[in-house]
């Protein structure tokens, strides 16, 4: 099984180009889970920490949308496997650290 995450965003255009003051950090986590009755155990997982710089970067002050796709993670899994991802933004100065946002994967054959 292969799993990856793709993130698309639009950010407010009032931020300057290449503004490093939006986040203290941001990362994506991609998981492969073996589906079964009850809790689905994680059988493969990888963090992609390079998201912060991409979110804070723009080509001009008017073009503030972009897309980031992680590399694929792989695991030999049965037909009942699935991929999920989590986004962990850490907004600068809020004192809350990384906040987890879960996303369920879409099945593709």
Describe this structure in words.
With 109 residues, the protein is mainly beta. Helices cover 6% and strands 44% of the residues. It has 1 helix and 8 strands; from the N terminus they run E-E-E-E-H-E-E-E-E. The protein has one helix at 51-56; strands at 2-3, 6-10, 23-34, 42-48, 65-69, 73-74, 81-91, 101-104. It has a 4-stranded antiparallel beta sheet. It is elongated and about 45 Å long. The model has no long low-confidence stretch (mean pLDDT 84).
Gist of the model:
The chain is mainly β and 109 residues long. Helices cover 6% and strands 44% of the residues.
Blueprint of the fold:
Elements: E1 2-3, E2 6-10, E3 23-34, E4 42-48, H1 51-56, E5 65-69, E6 73-74, E7 81-91, E8 101-104
Antiparallel strand pairs: 1-6, 2-5, 3-4, 3-7, 7-8
Q: Which class of secondary structure composition applies to the elements?
A: mainly beta
- Helical stretch count? 1
Task: Tell me the span between the first and last alpha carbons.
Answer: 10 Å
Gyration radius over CA: 16 Å
Query: Quaternary state, please?
Result: single chain
What is the N-to-C succession of helices and strands?
EEEEHEEEE
The profile of the biggest β sheet is: 4 strands, antiparallel
Helix content: under 10%
Strand order of the largest sheet: 4-3-7-8
Number of strands: 8
- What is the overall silhouette? elongated
* Low-pLDDT segments: none
Would you tell me the overall average pLDDT? 84
Strand content: 35-45%
């Amino acid at each position: 099984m292969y799993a990856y995450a793709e993130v698309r965003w639009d950010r407010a255009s009032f931020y300057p180009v290449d503004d490093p003051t939006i986040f203290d950090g941001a990362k994506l986590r991609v998981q492969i889970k073996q589906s079964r009755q009850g809790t689905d155990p994680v059988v493969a997982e990888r963090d992609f920490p390079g998201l912060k710089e991409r979110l804070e970067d723009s080509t001009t002050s008017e073009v503030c949308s972009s897309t980031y796709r992680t590399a694929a993670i792989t695991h030999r899994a049965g037909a009942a496997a699935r991929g999920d991802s989590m986004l962990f933004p850490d907004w600068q100065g809020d004192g809350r650290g990384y906040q987890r946002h879960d996303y369920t994967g879409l099945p593709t054959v």
